[in-house]
Specification:
By secondary structure, this protein is an all-alpha fold. The chain is built from five helices and no strands.
């Protein structure tokens, strides 16, 4: 498996774990939002780590993930500088217009 497939697979799995969701939950959420996936197709895609960017974005959307950070690593063929740290959604409460009223 390529390094990139492994990273994107781990990223999606970590977002599911943070929210206490299984792939069965993910499948249900995807189908409720207009996708036609089976649990086995979702399991297979995640297991391989070879899914489209649109599938990845759909998954993040339905589980409520609005921000991600990419883990730090060095790669001589694409990135020479380290990027952000571990995948995480910030634990910050955002003020909304409703909160101010």
């Amino acid at each position: 498996m390529s390094e990139w497939n492994n990273k994107v697979k781990r990223l999606l799995k970590s977002e599911l774990v943070k929210r206490g969701l299984s792939t069965e939950d993910l499948t249900t959420l995807l189908n409720e939002n207009g996708c036609t996936e089976t649990k086995s197709s979702v399991d297979s895609k995640i297991s391989r780590g070879t899914f489209s960017a649109s599938f990845f974005m759909q998954c993040l959307f339905v589980i409520g993930c609005t921000k991600i950070e990419i883990e730090e690593y060095r790669s001589t063929f694409l990135i020479s500088e380290p990027s952000n740290l571990m995948v995480a959604e910030p634990n910050v409460e955002y003020k909304t217009i409703k909160d101010e009223n």
